[in-house]
Transmembrane protein (Thraustotheca clavata), 1017 residues
Amino acid sequence: HASIFSQFLMSRDICILESDKLASYTMMASPNTSVLEPSVARVRPPSRQAPISPKYMRDPSTASSKAAVLTELNDSIALPVPESESTAKNAKKKYEMSIPGVTIMENQRYTFAITLKNTYQVKQLVKERFPGRANKATRHHLVGQVANMQVKCIRRLVQSGLGVILLDNDNAIPHHDQKYNQTDNICILIDPYKDKDLLLQEFKREKDELAIKRGNATSRLGMATLESLRNVCFSPALELQLTHNIIRNAFRDYDKEDWVLDHSKDLYCWDVVEHCFPLHDRVFNNTFFKEYRKRTFDFRFQKATTGNSERWAIEELRLHFGERVAFLFAFMHIYAKLLLPLMCICVLYYLGFRWVPGYTWDAYLLGLSFLGFGVVSIWAPSLLLVWERETRTLTEKWNLSSYRDTIFERNDENPNFEYVWVKNEITQEMEKQPKESKKRLIRATMVFFVVLSSIIQCIVLMPFLQWYVWSKLAPVCGSSVCVERGNCRHFLNCFNSPTSTVGTDRWAYILIQGVILGLLIDTVFFELFNWFSAKFVSWENLAKKSDFENRLVHRRFVFVWSNWFFWFLTLAFFYLPYGNYVNDLFRHIGWGWAVIYEWDPAVLTLDTLFVTPLVVTQLLNMILETWLPYIIRKIKGRPASCRTACSESCFNGLKCVKNMKERKRKHRRDANMTAHKLADEVSRSTRFFVPVLGYSDDSNEYTAYEIIAESQLPIFDTTYDYLDASIQFSYILMFTIVWPLLPLPAFLNNVLEVRGDAFRLLFGHRRPMPRRDASIGEWATVLHYANVIAITVVSGLIVMYHFGAIVSVWSGKYCDFEFDNAAMVPFRTLNVSLTRAPEDCLIFLETSDWEMAQIFTFIILEHIGFLLRYLVLQLEKTPAAISNTAYLRLKQIRELTNARTAHSDVFDYIRQLRDIFDKYDIEGSDHLYETDLIFFLAEWMCKDPSELQKRSGMIFRYMDKNQLGKVPFSTCCLMLQHAQHDRFFSVLLGIYDSLDDYRNVKFIFSTSVIELDVHSF
């Protein structure tokens, strides 16, 4: 064994420099080939590393802003077209459309943070997992076990090649921002750039593993290496995914199967990990947000449908935060840009009639009918069509056809999935089977809950309706009604202003009502229905995370939509047309006290009913989603009891913290592992040096307290942004027909909302893991649902509120009003005394058979609306820029010329491996079973087969990626290429680990490698 190990050390690094300027290959000889075959050098394949490491590519001084950026595993690098080629300018532009570039670099050194649980938190976890007296021995020695697991986590992170530092959580470190560090949790910062080739090797290994799982391992063997490409770097989003994958693999216990881990009573690495999350780059955030505020919108109408394809902010968000975040901002930009012309048309239309003298109300309603019907049947589907075209453009530009290729995305398991382990009788493997759930009963219960929620909303909102009616009908103080009653009190049951004009006392009273109603609808009901929708979907017990998210989108839209629009639809179709019958019903059942004044529908115009709730709810959204989290974070940035002292001086701050923590310090040190103790223990047991710093030595300067505070922030989620947009979209479609100014507050809200979303993403929430979505997903379907529902609602509003004016225009305009005297009420409840010809109008309203005419008109309008929507959506959905013949041919040429054959040394490696493989492939099936695989590996590694047989089961399960029960030759080739970069695989094979010489010797000479891995790693 000693001679084998020495020969391995002598022959492990043999460099062969090729004359080609574009490549330099590092060759590694197979162990001990000089002993067994001195005349033949069995070589390993060239490492596929780029000449420029990602660490230096993050420096703007060395990386060009035009550098090609890898964003996912299956990206094909698009090389620029040579200037000498006589290609059209537009073709060249389309060709380069697929080459992303980073314009604002991230310069932080530590990209991930891990917080470890303290002893108390692990104790609570053990109690939940093993209730009662189960596993009492584990609880009794919990302090030592938690400390051992924390040391194990640090050791595995270091052995995986990551740079690791601990933040001091026990001492107050003086700093210019007065940051305090005392916490009960260990804070670890991860530096993936310590080894400049780590991310490149992980990228290569993941590409190989992806090819194995897809069955493309054979074709992968002949592909060219990455070092033939220069000036290529990873996007920050892909770097985060690669780093997350390294951390996950480091903490994974490969020596035990998943079902064994589920039933085990031992603690594992993830049991002591509280949070593992990516960190914000503060310098990038400040720079990006400063620039984003200047260039939020580019209001050039000709760029309305193509601006996102060239918008730098969307590209930057995509490269730094992933496609899911980028699609949100792209959609909001398209939505706001197309809302702008609609807002201008509606505002100009309203202002054109508002101050025109004479009887203009019928003409106003006639034009408003066409405008509102055009919004729902032409503008809305046009917006959906434009967004579909933009989606296809971005999908082509960002190469999203294989969007599940990223490392993070392939883990699609629902974390809330409830299952049982069942043995498959065919494969003899343990598989997850979902627990039985009565889905039909759940869906029936959901329908019952929708009906019940409507009844509850009727009960809760009816007092608000009556209260609002009372505030509009309350008399003026000093009027004859007050004199007759003798009990009028200002602002309680009477007002000085007869109308609710802005600034009056009646307006202030109604504003208070709107705030209370907005809080009830936007906060109480909204959170309640969100909780119920999530609960119903969780009861369905879906196995895949994507299925869970898609189902949740539909459930939330149903519940939240009904919650938001119940108030408005009830007013429009029930209360205003039949308010007098409602008052009679109240008097009949003994609730006459709720009906104080006579019913006058002209006072409750439908257009004014939308103003207060809409504006108030949008303002509440802005406060609750953007301003409040930022204020809370600012307040929690320092210990609350020391805030005043910290503002005076550094000395007072340190003294305050010392006094506050002195009594608890001894107990904390005894019960929990501190950062210094943990670092000392790691150094003592493994000889790894792990530095302990007061704050991170990079541009962020994070302290332990700030990492803990950041871990408590909510993760930025696009769900509520899309939900708010869909609700607002429904507002505009359904109620522009009665209030043309509705797009104005919606547009102003979107202008602030886009900046607010950027602020929440960068400063108010925890950085999300990048997600490679191919579109906005099911939210596009939800918008189509809203459009379909709106056509029906608008048709109903036209026949109920506008139909009389439309008929009156063609019948003599008997019921026409002046604009100041008109009211947006059902036309059969009009105050005819204010019309042009009161007597003729009364006859006109009483003699016509309105019911049948309204029903017939409703059916016709609905069908016309659906027909127009269908015709708009039949327009071309694929932009000409990506569908023309020139682009398609250029794309084909790129794909055909982009594939490069591997270097000849790779084929030498495959030939040598094939010669040994065929010796044990007796059946000629190009696959090896477990026993033959061990002998094959032993001969290739020049080892005694008995060394590998001790852990043959783990080796075979680890190499059988597709669970075929046998391992193909192509899998062996790819896995042996990157074996030295795979922590667990290198331990299983017993090959040299360059991270720890001391432990390498123990691997080589140990007779129990499995025990070493389980207990030491």
About this structure: Residues 439-632 form one domain. The first strand starts at residue 14 and ends at 16. The radius of gyration is 35 Å.
